[in-house]
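Can't paste images in this forum, so I'm doing it all in text. The chain is below; anyone willing to post the predicted structure tokens underneath?
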Amino acid sequence: MPTETPQAIRLADYRPFPFEIEETELLFKLEPEATRVLATLKVRRTGDAGEPLVLNGERLKLISAAIDGRALSAADYRLD
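Text version of the structure:
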């Protein structure tokens, strides 16, 4: 089994995250066939105003998204 040498991360390359997640609330709805998770985040921008907030939802199905209680349309965000 090949092993890769870990790449060094230098302090000079470090950039602070441009957002601060002040609060996280998770609500789990457990069902026999599926589990739904409602995630509510309180996020504050701390860096460059042009930097997008990127959330990793690999292998998850997005049901909806909202900012300050306003539902986002598909044009307001991007799924990769």
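The beta strands are 19-30, 35-45, 66-67, 70-71. Residues 7 and 13 are 12 Å apart (CA to CA).
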